[in-house]
Amino acid sequence: MEKITQKSQSEVGKAIVCFQYVERIKSELIIAARLIERVGELKGEELRGASNVLALFLDSLLGEINIAQNVSGRRDFEVAGERVRAATEKAHDGLYDEAIRLVSEAISSVATSGQWAMQTLKENGFL
Fold first, then answer.
1. Among the ranges given (13-17, 38-42, 92-96), the one the predictor scored with the smallest mean pLDDT
2. Backbone angles phi, psi at 124, to 5 degrees
3. Contact criterion met (CB below 8 Å) for 83 and 103
4. First to last CA, the chain
5. In a domain, 1, yes or no
6. CATH of the domain at 82
7. Of 49, 25, 18, 22, nearest in space to 103 by CA
8. Are 72 and 10 spatial neighbours (Cβ–Cβ below 8 Å)?
9. Coil, strand, or helix at residue 56?
10. pTM of the predicted model, to two decimals?
């Protein structure tokens, strides 16, 4: 096995952390899409209560995405955060299909960071 340079060691560490965040955030985004879909099926008081819980969940998800972006430095997480913020606004306005589409775009963006992390780990003999 080749000797790992200081630079590649740093990249490997960043890739490992990035990969962990990618997997967690993708799961949370999938949950968000399901929640948005369900909230869109509700009416009256149920809708109001569920909308509040959805907003809290999406806000927490944004916090996770921001941490991942700060730790990894990957722009893909920033883009995902922008999509989740927009999805939150769409859901608040009752535009649930649009909100789900934006969450799907966030999943794609996060997956891009996952591809980078996997490639970095492969190139350095960890996968």
1. 13-17
2. -105, 15
3. yes
4. 13
5. no
6. 1.20.120
7. 25
8. no
9. helix
10. 0.89
Distance CA 72, CA 16 (A): 10
pLDDT: is 119 or 4 the higher one? Answer: 119
pLDDT tens-place string over residues 29-75: 999 999 999 999 999 999 999 999 999 999 999 999 999 999 999 99
Burial 60-71 (b: 16+ CB within 10 A, else e): ebbebbeebbee
Residue 53 lies in a domain: yes
Q: Is residue 85 predicted with pLDDT exceeding 50?
A: yes
Domain extent at residue 82: 6-123
CA distance 73 to 90: 27
> From CA 63, how far away is CA 120, in angstroms rounded?
26
- Whether residue 95 lies inside any domain: the answer is yes
Number of domains in the chain: 1
Query: How far apart (Å, rounded) are the C-alpha atoms in residues 90 and 105?
Result: 14
Question: Between 48 and 2, whose confidence is greater?
Answer: 48
Distances (CA, A) of 57 to 63, 69, 85: 10, 18, 12
Are 29 and 103 in contact by the 8 Å Cβ rule? The answer is yes
